[in-house]
Design brief:
Length: about 140
């Protein structure tokens, strides 16, 4: 594992410590959600090369998979696949799920992508009864 981390660090902008940190974080997930070691290292390097640190990436990975597992229909809409297919990907190949989810966002302009992710993130932190039923969510507005 050490040589793989060193190789990833040497061949990109990701640092060995951040890759190892991400792998450690996702390694603590339940077995059903845990990526293989090779996938965890690749994800860690990919996230850091995209400017996302291990702490944030590890938490986001966990939240995304947990939310997708409980909202397969909505995730299927974004991904252009059925809810059953979302569930199958999460259960059989979480990395492939992540790739397909990212592909589902591909083609959206920056505003639509940000709006989709902001609304999704907002709904993870605010009780349903407090969701603002308007097209523009003003996070932190105190409106509930």
């Amino acid at each position: 594992m050490g040589s793989a981390i060193n190789e990833l660090g040497a061949n990109g902008v990701a640092t060995e410590s951040n890759i190892a940190n991400f792998a450690t974080r996702v390694g603590s997930l339940p077995d059903a959600l845990k990526p293989s070691i090779a996938d965890a290292l690749a994800l860690g390097a990919g996230f850091e090369e995209s400017g996302i640190q291990a702490e944030i990436a590890g938490r986001a990975y966990s939240i995304l998979l947990n939310q997708a597992a409980t909202n397969t229909e909505k995730f299927g809409e974004v991904m252009g696949i059925t809810a059953d297919e979302v569930a199958r990907l999460i259960n059989d190949d979480p990395l492939e799920f992540m790739i397909k989810f990212a592909e589902g966002l591909d083609g959206m302009n920056a505003t639509d992508t940000a709006e989709t992710l902001i609304i999704w993130a907002y709904r993870q932190t605010v009780p349903i009864k407090c969701w603002v039923p308007c097209p523009v969510i003003q996070i932190g507005s105190g409106v509930c």
